[in-house]
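Figure 6 in text form: structure in, sequence out.
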């Protein structure tokens, strides 16, 4: 199996080239690192000698993920299905905002967390993505949009695609370091990177200890252990008390505002939920993103996932306001192209099987 060029930092590439017996490894590593981040095929790496390219071709994959399909929504959102070297598929989304372009990337093929409202979890876990495969999504889309390393087309990254980022901890941390490196990479500031987790409490603490500049987002979706266990399996391993202990640890260590995601369901939008949110988040700087539920196959049939109606949603807004809870509703982008995580990948795989 070939190694993935984008898995390596500049210093690591230098060691790789030394191992291959390449002369002037520092200079070659800098050239190669730049090309790897431009996401071009070997034959376009014009300043690298032919004999070095031949050696590299034998040992490395320079484009570890390929854009397999691309869909454009009426609202301008682009949805990508990527094919990996082993034939697995993942998906990513490019959302266009006034302040720039945000890419949502996947961190795993599948996911073992099994959240009831999510299409990705339906097929279980297949494998983790390497740091280079996560980075490859950003670089492939930047290249597809006509961007380069010095004139990038992507300004923000959210780790909210298929997979649970903290279940692939080491590769995700390495990805964050690679994508924000200032030495010839696409160099996206950690302040513009957001990581979303379903709540693996010990890993939230481990992340806090690294003191990265990223934003932590918690998929909360319930204010009692009882309901959370019904819709999110992770709640069987970590109670709300465990989760908020970890979040408080994160906040104390980093001083960074914590974001919460909250899908609007009939069962989690009462006045009691608003009061419990207030109490759970005491002492934190935080903000809630309220999300209308996306109609995945489960959401269509499971009564636990019945959406909050218009009146209930309006009342919940008032309850949040009464409790001084900072919240906004997330705009739903790309709905006409299977906007929810995991939906498009499943659709494309199914079509391919027919
Ligand atoms: S919501 Fe996230 S953590 Fe939960 S099953 Fe889907 S991908 Fe996994």
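Output sequence:
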């Amino acid at each position: 199996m070939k190694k993935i060029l984008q898995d390596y930092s500049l210093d690591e590439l230098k060691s790789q080239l030394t191992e291959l017996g390449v002369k002037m490894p520092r200079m070659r590593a800098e050239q190669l690192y730049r090309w790897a981040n431009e996401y071009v095929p070997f034959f376009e790496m014009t300043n690298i000698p032919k004999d070095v390219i031949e050696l590299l071709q034998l040992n490395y994959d320079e484009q570890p993920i390929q854009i397999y399909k691309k869909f454009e929504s009426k609202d301008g959102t682009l949805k990508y299905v990527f094919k990996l070297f082993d034939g697995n598929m993942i998906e990513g989304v490019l959302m266009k905002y006034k302040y720039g372009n945000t890419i949502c990337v996947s961190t795993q093929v599948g996911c073992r967390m099994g959240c009831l409202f999510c299409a990705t979890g339906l097929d279980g876990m297949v494998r983790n993505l390497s740091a280079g495969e996560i980075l490859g999504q950003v670089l492939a889309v930047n290249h597809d949009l006509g961007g380069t390393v010095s004139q990038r087309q992507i300004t923000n990254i959210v780790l909210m695609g298929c997979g649970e980022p903290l279940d692939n901890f080491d590769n995700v941390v390495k990805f964050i370091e690679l994508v924000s490196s200032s030495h010839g990479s696409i160099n996206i500031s950690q302040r513009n990177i957001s990581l979303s987790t379903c709540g693996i409490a010990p890993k939230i603490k481990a992340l806090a200890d690294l003191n990265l500049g990223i934003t932590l987002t918690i998929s909360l979706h319930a204010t009692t252990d009882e309901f959370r266990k019904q819709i999110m399996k992770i709640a069987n391993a970590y109670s709300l008390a465990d989760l908020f202990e970890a979040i408080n640890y994160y906040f104390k260590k980093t001083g960074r505002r914590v974001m919460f995601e909250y899908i609007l369901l009939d069962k989690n939008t009462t006045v009691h939920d608003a009061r419990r949110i207030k109490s759970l988040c005491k002492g934190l700087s935080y903000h809630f993103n309220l999300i209308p539920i996306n109609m995945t196959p489960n959401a269509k049939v499971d009564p636990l996932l019945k959406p909050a109606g218009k009146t209930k949603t309006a009342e919940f807004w008032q309850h949040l306001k009464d409790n001084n809870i900072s919240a906004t509703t997330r705009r739903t982008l790309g709905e006409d192209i299977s906007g929810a995580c995991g939906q498009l990948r499943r659709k494309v795989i199914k079509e391919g099987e027919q």
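Caption detail: Residues 32 and 172 are 22 Å apart (CA to CA).
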